[in-house]
């Protein structure tokens, strides 16, 4: 018999034994030249054998062309991998780590060739039309421009590349064996799995081990940071497309730069000393340039130093805003491509509100499950709850802090006295400080809570102290900029609309109090929108005191009468108002004063539409109005129930729902007192905050740590004071089905005297209300077992109420029918 070399035996062996035999051959042969000659001769003999089979049978020829095309595509993939490995050492190490995985994929792909030829070509990323080429067909060139090469030339280049790859693989295997790993057992396992695949197909074509056969569209769209990805996707949805994001950012930057320019112009270039001397035509200059200083910074002074420092400070903030805007636009472009290419949603649908967020989440889940586009490849479960938890990772903790009253926002002693006692001050700057000191600091790069955060409360106290010093240093500049920007934004609009205090709005603390777990901004704004009208209607039910009403009538009468006289003077000759003076001011100045007085007096009078001259039960209407507000805000303390007429209830609601001018004054006071709150009040709660975070944090597989309340795990977290706790439990029918449901509900949430959970519980039913709100926004979301028990109890309660109402209605119908029979 003819002697067969180890390499010949490897080439004629089934594909299941090629990987092990190739490694052994390469380990025994270190001379590259001899390896190349033997591999090239062997490959030439393989090509001759396949030409002989092609001439013997037409079907066998088709199989040869198919496999040859597959080999060409595989050679192209191997050549590309080799070039990438030579360019980067890191990429080469990563390729070697996934070597065994790719070998398994190649074996599975080779096993499928025995089926349909079209399916085999599609598996390797080739078009089925390749089967219809003639016998002289040559595969196209890969990576060499327009130059074409024969199959033999391409195979020769592939063998040379394979030799280099196998030598590196052998070195890696020797290193692994040196560490004591059983590489031979792994090779035998791979051989057995490949032999199992060979038993399902009937052909003798040899697949080299380095042929990495991969589909053209593998569906992997993995992102490195799911938090950033989902935040950009939601930001694109929330702003309804790319154009609104760019427009809002440009308007914000323009407003910031214009406010900075105008403030510098007014306080550096305008000569106010000369401008205040302008009292009449003789003392005033006709050209405004006469009141402008040409070179205000030519001389150094404390005022100029403050202005320069102010410019530098807000210029740095403007640069930071521009950088943030550019990053947001970049993310928005990527989100736009994702929406249009993967989800099939255009900007027009988003602008028109034709797409809900739940639909977008369902499409992302479908892409993830089907494998068309996988964004999570590390075991994360993508569903509506996980997406909301990722987007609101920090906000959920902030909602928990406010709900549990963990933040001391009052003034420290001895300032907490008199009219300042018990008042909370919360502003945007304090919110940013909370993000810097707590919410952003406590997460690491894997979005896990740092153990150092809740184990070192002293570190949190130091961060609060640093923010307090920063607020104290920048306090004058912040106050000046805020007042200037607020006046430029609102005063002219209020004057034209005759709303001198602006519209009423919910305060910053009130919005965080109403916010629920996993409630995204668009859902929160949609829910809170009708509450503005409901709160306005409630406050209008309260009449002014008789003294205030009488004073208002007097002011309206006096100011209206004098205004009518001045208007009569203007009708005779308008120069009278300009040139006739009463004291130091002309009559036109008094026209403005009388207009303001008339508006103030009119505001003191009760609304005739709300308070007609006849009497009615206002107490019942006030209770109903408070319940209507709670329907939208989901905030209904026990002290408010049935006491809508009480002044305490009215003061509590009016304190949260104030005029915009009063809210701005409260914002200024919060900025003014921020150094004291950050330096003295909040550090006292540092240990409680750290302990609270440690108790409520919960790890979601693949998504990091989140707030435990956001998981809606009612077996671990609940609220004993929530009135819905006993819904469907009491007053239930005695039938077997209802009794069993009642027993199930009682077991799912036992009495607080029996169940003692170490986890802190939410207040005012925050977690349960958040659960039902989230379920309403995402109806297809599958909740946990404890959540489903709660839903079943509520549905049972609603069914019982409907049956009771129908029974009562039937009683009324029967009574009316008996009365009709009596009349007949």
What would the keywords be for this entry?
824 residues, 6 strands, globular, 64% helix, disordered N terminus, 32 helices, 2% strand, mainly alpha
At a glance:
The chain is mainly alpha-helical and 824 residues long.
Task: Give an overview in words.
Helix content is 64%, strand content 2%. The protein has 824 residues and is mostly helical. The chain has a two-stranded antiparallel ribbon. Strands 2-3 form a two-stranded antiparallel sheet. The longest helix has 42 residues, at 302-343. The model is unreliable at 1-11, 15-32, 100-160, 172-218 and 730-757 (pLDDT under 50).
Average of pLDDT:
74
Q: What share of residues is helical?
A: 55-70%
Q: What is the CA-CA span between the terminal residues?
A: 121 Å
**What would you call the shape?**
globular
Give the helix tally: 32
Major beta sheet summary: 2 strands, antiparallel
Uncertain runs are 1-11, 15-32, 100-160, 172-218, 730-757
- Secondary structure class reads mainly alpha
The whole-angstrom Rg is 39 Å
The number of strands is 6
**How big a fraction of the residues is strand?**
under 5%
Strand order of the largest sheet: 1-4
